[in-house]
Write a sequence for this structure.
């Protein structure tokens, strides 16, 4: 058995982990397919690029309300919640079968917004359920493979969705998405997880909601990882906004960006397969720091106008970026009390991923205003600085957490 096969086999042999991973892959495929098709759908109906871009905004906007939405995942048992959430999404997207004229796009936006809001609750409940259903020793492997699966869906599902849309139209893509959610609901229903009924919430809804954020902020191991994740995704957004400027810098047509994205996807797949082993050997802080440092090198070296260098850098960025995400989210699952895990996971997702969108916006404003090579080097330095606190305090953190699986590994 090869090194890259071991975590895959270990996870798939675990019934709970295998069912959760299958549900992630199936529902992720449908979501990725609809994400691209919805924009094309609006573009065809209205002819407006701006209205098409609003589809992504409608799906993303609910993540800003991650903490209160995540609190819902702590008010009920997570297994039944995931079953009903997937059934709700299956029914919700079927309403898109009626979309056929420009006057129907408001319905499309409303569905996408509710889709995104339900998705936030779904992801929080899933993170909490995985922490219960999966052997704690396999959490790093599971999250790495989940990252690999999602990257694979980003490469394959949009192409499938675009092809299906071209051949049969938007309603057919909506029908496909509905079927994937029905399958995911069935997979979650097959899970055999013993969950205690949540205790009634004490205090106001606001107090109940902020407990997750308070847990993250007060935890000496979670806070630096989540903050490093947010900072890294901010710089990743800035870098992502420069993608087509890099292509121009290399002297290629815009379609060449697809080649660079493919190289980045390959890097992410490799890291996803190796994440569990790397977490056990390095510990979460050093694994995250090494990944950020690798991303920093990949971003800075893109200032060299060379195709081979650009491809290697894209692969390095793809390999480095998931490290801090896997490390932070696995740490949240391991270190957060089960009763708070829905709120904590949703808050962590908001703190980590919202800065990526802000970075995209700022990066778009900086393109053309600052020389590209200088901007890339500055971004690389910023990423490198983000990794330093994790490296500097890794030793003391491990001594304080003696015996903790979170930071175990050779010094």
């Amino acid at each position: 058995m090869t090194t890259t096969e071991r975590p895959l086999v270990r996870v798939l042999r675990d019934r709970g982990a295998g069912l959760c991973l299958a549900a992630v892959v199936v529902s992720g495929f449908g979501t990725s397919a609809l994400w691209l098709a919805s924009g094309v759908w609006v573009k065809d109906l209205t002819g407006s690029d701006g209205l098409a871009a609003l589809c992504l905004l409608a799906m993303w906007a609910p993540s800003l309300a991650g903490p209160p939405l995540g609190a819902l995942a702590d008010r009920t048992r997570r297994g039944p919640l995931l079953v009903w959430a997937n059934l709700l999404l299956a029914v919700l997207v079927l309403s898109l079968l009626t979309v056929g004229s420009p006057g129907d796009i408001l319905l499309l936006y409303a569905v996408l917004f509710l889709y995104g809001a339900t998705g936030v609750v779904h992801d929080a409940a899933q993170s909490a359920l995985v922490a219960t259903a999966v052997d704690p020793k396999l959490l790093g492997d599971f999250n790495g493979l989940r990252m690999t699966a999602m990257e694979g869906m980003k490469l394959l599902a949009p192409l499938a969705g675009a092809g299906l849309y071209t051949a049969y139209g938007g309603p057919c893509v909506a029908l496909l998405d509905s079927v994937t959610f029905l399958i995911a609901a069935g997979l979650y229903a097959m899970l055999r997880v013993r969950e205690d009924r949540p205790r009634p919430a004490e205090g106001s809804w606001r107090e109940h909601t902020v407990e997750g954020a308070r847990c993250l902020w007060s935890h000496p191991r979670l806070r630096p990882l989540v903050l490093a994740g947010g900072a890294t995704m901010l710089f990743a957004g800035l870098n992502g906004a420069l993608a087509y400027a890099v292509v121009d810098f290399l002297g290629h047509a815009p379609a060449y960006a697809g080649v660079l994205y493919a190289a980045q996807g390959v890097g992410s797949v490799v890291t996803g397969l190796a994440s569990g082993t790397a977490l056990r050997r390095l510990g979460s802080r050093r694994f995250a720091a090494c990944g950020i440092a690798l991303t920093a090198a990949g971003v800075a070296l893109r200032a060299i106008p060379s195709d081979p260098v650009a491809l290697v850098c894209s692969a390095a960025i793809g390999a480095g970026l998931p490290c801090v995400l896997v490390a932070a989210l696995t740490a949240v699952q391991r270190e957060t009390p089960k009763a708070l895990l829905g709120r904590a996971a949703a808050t962590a997702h908001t703190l980590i991923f919202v800065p990526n969108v802000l970075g995209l916006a700022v990066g778009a404003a900086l393109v053309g205003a600052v020389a590209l090579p200088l901007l890339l080097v500055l971004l690389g330095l910023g990423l490198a600085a983000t990794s330093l606190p994790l490296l500097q305090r890794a030793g003391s953190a491990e001594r304080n957490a003696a015996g903790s699986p979170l930071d175990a590994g050779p010094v």
